[in-house]
């Protein structure tokens, strides 16, 4: 999660040197789930939540995360909603190509293990 947040913040810094974080909230619940959101002075907004599912042996398991971010570019607001889990990162946005049919051709990750 921190990696995604860091990448978003770096993108903000590159895109608009005067942009600042206007609001940042982060919370971790007792069950290990978390919720994070931020907004910048140049209109970028992001939110993310997730939970850890431990595996049967140490150092195994996975996080299931979901979120969204939006930004404005040349007068158009772009929004991406996404999920990330053991099957990878899955972004969806009106401006992004639809790769959902790809799984029909290659199958799920479990099919190749």
Automatic annotation (TrEMBL):
Presence of keyword Signal: yes
InterPro entries: Casein_CS, Cuticle_Struct_Prot, Insect_cuticle
Pfam families xrefs: Chitin_bind_4 (PF00379)
Keyword list, A-Z: Cuticle, Signal
Signal peptide: 1-15
Domain of life: Eukaryota
Entry's Gene Ontology cellular component terms: chitin-based extracellular matrix
MF (Gene Ontology): structural constituent of chitin-based larval cuticle
Metal-binding keyword on record: no
Protein name: Pupal cuticle protein Edg-78E
Source organism of this protein record: Amphibalanus amphitrite
The organism's taxonomic lineage, starting at the top: Eukaryota, Metazoa, Ecdysozoa, Arthropoda, Crustacea
């Amino acid at each position: 999660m921190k990696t995604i947040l860091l990448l978003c913040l770096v993108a903000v810094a590159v895109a608009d040197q005067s942009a600042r974080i206007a609001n940042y909230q982060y919370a971790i619940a007792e069950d290990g789930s978390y919720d994070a959101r931020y907004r910048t002075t140049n209109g970028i907004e992001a939110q993310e939540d997730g939970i850890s599912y431990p595996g049967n042996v140490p150092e195994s398991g996975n996080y299931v995360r979901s979120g969204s971010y939006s930004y404005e570019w040349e007068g158009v607001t772009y929004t991406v909603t996404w999920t990330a889990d053991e099957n990878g990162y899955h972004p969806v946005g009106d401006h992004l190509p639809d790769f959902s049919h790809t799984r029909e051709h290659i199958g799920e990750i479990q099919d190749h293990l």
